[in-house]
Amino acid sequence: MTNDPVTSSTALPDWWQREKHRRQRRTLVFLLLLLALIGYYYYVSYLGNTGTINGISFDTRNYVAFVRQEPGGDMGLWAIRADGTDLRALTSPTDKSNKSRPVWTLDGKSLLYASNLRDAKTTQIYILGAGESKQLTYGTGNKSAPVVSPDGKSASFIVQGAIKTINLNGTEVYQVMPQPRSSNESSDNPAANAANELQGPYLQSGFSSDGQGMAGAQDISGDNAAADPNGLAADQLIMAIPPNGQRAVPLDRGHEVSFSWEPKGNRLATAFTELEAQGEKGQTALVSGIRVWRFDNPTRPTPQSIFAGLGFSIEPKNVAW
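The structure assignment produced for this chain is given below.
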């Protein structure tokens, strides 16, 4: 009996050490599982909806991609060298889906295009590398007109009249234009405010050379034409988010409009036709022209007219820089 207190006093530290080690092991296992989950999350985010896409199995330099109607009426995706040799089918003859608007990724390893491959009723954007095409976009509404960003990491497309962007792995979809507005937002530029509120589907989108700016051509025909604060009747409008700006600003409008970003700069060339303008004596004239816009002030861009014409005889269209 006299040894019991000694036995208890020496056993207690051993028990405590064992319990402490067990707790440390449990904590370590928990941390390892947590790190594994975090790593898995980042891995899945990196792969996105498309997973790993291997590049097209041949060197695509100097190849032109196009959609060809096959003898049976189906649409096939093809490529051919710029010298007219080596015609290649990029999609299988068993793929009977509609296809349109192919565009290369910047590394030349993949193609984006619009198709109803998975759902005959809804057109989505697909990305084609080696093997079968992978679906890039999801959700309701037909998608069209993909454009790859200058950094090659994302693309824009048009869905239900809006311009959206998406990473090329299928993640992070954002609506760029029309931009969401809060109910209490105000502007010191009523004309810009009115133009921003015009409703109408976007027809075209394009990134600035640094990928930070976006321009779009919008259909404002019908009731929207009467909303112009200057009383100028028009069917189409160019909106742009400057590379150093936060909000879209209205640029040129007319019966038909087009735009093109400066290849190695941040200016934007625009063309417009048959814009109804008021002369000094109140007479109405149709004006067409080409202007180059600078965005030194992102809220008040500066235009420079480089071409102008009156009437129907001189109408610049489809401007390209």
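Interim note for the steering committee: The first helix runs from residue 4 to 47. The first strand starts at residue 63 and ends at 69.
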